[in-house]
Write a structure and sequence with these properties.
There is one protein chain. The chain is 30% helix and 27% strand. With 189 residues, the chain is α+β, with helices and mostly antiparallel strands. The relative contact order is 0.24.
Amino acid sequence: IKSQLHSFYSTMIVYRDIISGDEILSDAYKLEEVFDAEGNKIEGLMSCESKNITKGGGDVDIGCGNSFGGTGEEEGVDNTAETVNNVIDGFQYTETQIGTAMDFKNWIKEYMNAVVLKLRAAGKPKEDIQKFKATAPEIAKFFIKQFSDVQFYLGPSFNPETMVFSIYKEGALYPSFYFIMAGLVAEKF
């Protein structure tokens, strides 16, 4: 039982992009199903919420001098701390632009075809490939309908053949990131 518990707690899933090889996401972020404006589930598309976090810096000055273990009278603010988006920072995304909705439509068509080729090359069952091909138009429509609200990101390799997308859901303070699951390979660590 001890070895089973160890393997249970030490396994992490990282999702790697099948085109660029970039690590795009991990199971540390809760994936959620995606629904369009009419409430229809978009098969093959998942999202995760993001948030801002403070990165760097060690001590937090709450204004009480050394009452809580500080070493000086009134220590200053640590200028090495910065606020970052946890998903963008965690996977080293870089925001990019794609141009017009027509440019995006052409790009996503090429992307979907590249995913199909990668799935074939990986020896995926024909049924899996057909399923992806059947869901691809709905995924594309989801983004095209919201094109003006979509932000585009490249992974750490800056490969423009693959991207990650984000949209601020209504009332959200931070964006949700969207992933085309057929374009990702899950690896256990």
